[in-house]
Amino acid sequence: MKWVLAEHDAGAVSRLSEQAGIHPLIARLMVARGITDAAAALVFLSRDLSSLSDPRALRGMDRAVGRIRQAISSGEPITVYGDYDVDGVTGAALLFLALRELGARIDSYIPDRMTEGYGLNEEALGRIKASGAALVITVDCGISAVNQAAAARALGLDLIITDHHESAAVHWEGQSPAPGVLPEAFAIIHPGLVQPGTSDAVRDGIGGLTGVGVAFKLAQALTDLPAGDERMKQYLDLVTLGTIADIGRITGENRVLVKHGLDILSSEPPRLRPGIAALKQVANLSGKKVSVGTVGYTLAPRINASGRLERADTAFRLMTTDSPDEALHLATMLDRVNRERQAVEEAIWGSARELCLQADMANTGAFILSSDDWHPGVIGIVASRIVEEFYRPAALISVKDGVGKGSARSIPGFDLYQGLSACSDLLLGFGGHKYAAGLTINADDIERFTDRFDEVVASMTYDGTLLSPPMSAMGVGVKTWTCSGWICSFWLAKCRTRCMSASLQPGWAAIR
Length: 512
What we know:
This protein has 512 residues and is of the alpha/beta class.
């Protein structure tokens, strides 16, 4: 076990404590987080919605807003194209509701995990065009959909992409992306694509937005309302569900959004939307405070369940219905499907864990496991459990008809997306971010991929110490996993205490 003692600048701590009027212990924690300016410290502590940046800092925002407003005024049908996970469902629901409130002719499309897979697909675009739509807006997908964007143009569809996943074409330093690599869409809104001259503070603040966070920014720009307006605050429950479920960093603007969203999730009707009220009811949470852990372990799995074993439309309808009766019916369905998911998960976990126990841990940098018997909708959860127990990056692959669909999870310090990029020649496709990703691979290439990825992990973790769970001492006598503002939904179950001052730290620290 490696201990990491956070050093601090005593002078900076003293100055910050005096200038901001905060306790020296709080100042020490702030300095340890890189916050030494009194004004920045007070903004951090206040978590006020007024501190959020202008959504037009995102480069494609003005062009997207202009096209959407044109479609609304002329009565053109618009389709919101989401994803089947919690981030994609809540983001699609948020944008659907906001556009409906603005008077748009609006429809939605959530792809099926089993038959269509992740992201835009050409057959779905063809059906959307046949339905009469003129404009498609993606949520939580599309940043790598070069061929699908070309297909949309050929069909006569205008395509607006909103996404947060990593892409080799997105330069996080704010430089222009390489030409011809990003999809040729009408507009692209992505946290890594900001306006020239955007400050580092704003860039860092929005850099961790998930799909639903980007959708919130678009809705705010369309309404021209401040984030603190009640007409915008009503969507923060959805933002919080999607951000936490997608393992979003609770730093920067996410931290502000999630704080206010948890307040809404902890409330009761009429402030709470019918779908979430019903979800809390079936989960025995009515009248109870909702925390990050509650979302990660109780609410999010139920929302995810329909997309894992059935279609995600059920969860989308739950998030958008105005009927308490329909909401209770849908929530009950999701609760049943979630119990089925748990049974499937336990069966896969048992066989996958046995394979891990047979491995030579000293010479294993990552676990790449595959089977013809595993359900592709559940393997991501099991990958998370493997990472928790064995502290290695892990990918589980479900094989059918010679093709494997995999879900991968990682540890702090190992960038999963970059690791998969180094193996891209062995993959049919992949996408995701630092800590979670999906991949597609020919079954015949799994063995080569296993060897290559293991080598990549060994090279990227240099001395191997990253494969030992770190312990952090922040100088306050608390032994915790290192918390860099990263919510890890599979570590939260082990948590027994909050980070030092919950109002200061970005998320939870898992105590063992």
